[in-house]
């Protein structure tokens, strides 16, 4: 990755900040900052497309990376948008709103929207060597793409299984413990982490080993900050069945259920 490529980061980051500001403006009218969840994966797509346009990416590996990212980002954004439609602000964001009064309406611009844009830009760094095309792709590049594709498909299947379960369950206390959810309490988050480890592997093959902070950050966010901890803290309070599920099912990496 050369300095010329890094110098072009101002443009994609400006696009992301503009998106964050527009979404924040909409959230004020809706009084719902959880709309940022639908925007999260679109930040990555905007970052990658605008950077690719600036550096005039035309290599096969660049197109493959953009294709994988588009599948992951558009699918995830669409799923979250449909899932959250008409339900109001998510409980997690209601708690953030309560903790940051007064003037949360203004604070949410940087606490929620700009923060997520910055985090997305950091996590997206493995894409830069691939899109910049300073080095030729090799076998490891496509191994990384295969891992990323597996992660995206794994996450898609997990989300589809959960959506089907929520549409057919007999009571609110019933716990999803079938399919991929029998082997991991958060197979969707696991798939997302695998996707970014795959993208980093592809990036390593083109001089991007230095971007290892990207999958590390994504994994940390999912397992220690905004993913697993918030979901489990909420469900444990509301469901005795979920508290039992915690004792039998691996937390993140899929494994054999306990009796």
Structural account:
The chain has 259 residues and is mostly helical. The chain has one domain (3-248). The chain has twelve helices and no strands. Helix 2 (10-30) runs antiparallel to helix 3. The protein is globular, with a radius of gyration of 19 Å.
Please supply descriptive tags for the structure shown above.
single chain, mainly alpha, 259 residues
Nutshell version of this structure?
With 259 residues, this protein is mainly α. It has helices spanning 3-7, 10-30, 36-55, 60-84, 91-99, 104-123, 127-132, 139-168, 187-204, 213-225, 228-238, 240-248.
Please tell me what the overall shape is.
globular
Q: How widely separated are the two ends?
A: 50 Å
Q: What's the overall average pLDDT, rounded?
A: 93
Structural class: mainly alpha
Tell me the strand percentage band.
under 5%
The number of helices is 12
Topology (SSEs and partners):
Elements: H1 3-7, H2 10-30, H3 36-55, H4 60-84, H5 91-99, H6 104-123, H7 127-132, H8 139-168, H9 187-204, H10 213-225, H11 228-238, H12 240-248
Helix pairs in contact: 2-3, 2-6, 3-4, 3-6, 4-8, 8-9, 9-10
């Amino acid at each position: 990755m050369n300095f010329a490529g890094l110098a072009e980061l101002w443009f994609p980051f400006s696009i992301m900040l503009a998106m964050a500001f527009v979404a924040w403006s909409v959230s004020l009218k809706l009084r719902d900052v959880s709309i940022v969840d639908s925007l999260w994966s679109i930040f990555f797509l905007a970052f990658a497309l605008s950077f690719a346009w600036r550096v005039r990416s035309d290599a096969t590996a660049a197109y493959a990376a953009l294709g994988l990212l588009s599948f992951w980002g558009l699918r995830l954004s669409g799923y979250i948008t449909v899932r959250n439609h008409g339900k109001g602000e998510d409980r997690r964001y209601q708690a953030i709103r309560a903790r940051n009064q007064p003037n949360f309406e203004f604070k949410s611009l940087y606490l929620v929207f700009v923060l997520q844009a910055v985090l997305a830009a950091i996590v997206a760094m493995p894409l830069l060597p691939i899109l910049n095309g300073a080095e030729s792709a090799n076998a490891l590049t496509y191994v990384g793409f295969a891992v990323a594709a597996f992660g995206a498909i794994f996450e898609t299947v997990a989300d589809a299984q959960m959506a089907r379960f929520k549409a057919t369950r007999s009571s609110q206390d019933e716990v999803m413990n079938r399919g991929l959810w029998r082997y991991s309490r958060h197979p969707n988050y696991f798939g997302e982490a695998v996707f970014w480890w795959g993208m980093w592997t592809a990036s390593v093959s083109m001089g991007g080993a230095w971007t290892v902070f990207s999958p590390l950050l994504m994994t940390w966010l999912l397992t220690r900050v905004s993913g697993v901890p918030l979901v489990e803290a909420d469900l444990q309070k509301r469901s005795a069945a979920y508290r039992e599920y915690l004792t039998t099912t691996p937390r993140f990496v899929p494994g054999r259920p306990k009796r």
